[in-house]
Amino acid sequence: xxxxxxxxxxxxxxFEKLPGIGPKSAQRLVYYLLHAPKEFAQSLSETIINxxxxxxxxxxxxxxxxxNPCSICSSDKRDKSEIMVVEEPLDVLALEKSQSYEGLYHVxxxxxxxxxxxxxxxxxxxxxxxxxRNGEVKELILATNPNMEGEATAMYxxxxxxxxxxKVTRIARGLPVGAYLEYADxxxxxxxxxxxxxx
Length: 199
Description:
By secondary structure, this protein is an alpha/beta fold. Helices cover 41% and strands 13% of the residues. The chain has seven helices and six strands, in the order H-H-H-E-E-E-H-E-H-E-H-E-H.
């Protein structure tokens, strides 16, 4: 068996802890870093340290930010009567890239998943209800993922919010642009038909 130097083995083990990185990918990354200029490795390590030291969680929407409150929550240009509920900070990033939403967000940091022991108490649902009680919010847009966990989470939140008299909507679901009907599953097709609009 080949004796791998301890620093190499240690870094491979650390990379393997990252989501989506298996043993082979971890090894490729480490051997790439071994051959990269020392300045690149130093820059990478400083960037990782900055990530941990210079980011915070916004105490209003629970998104990742450099400031608290975040730039979205503190902006005068955002529509404060709408809150879009998403599962993860990456969802906010995707929605902001679309430049089609001008309201506020609320990040749950997950979805209800009983098989993984994630219940409502592990999510930021209590904080969402607190935000909704100020009377300023007129519409809550549920933008959880269109899978079993996302649907369960959306239904759970809808049941909690409906007594508050706030309009609760769900983002449309259906076929993505560029998709072929023959490759779409039955649920996606049925939702695309249900959510059709006038042409």
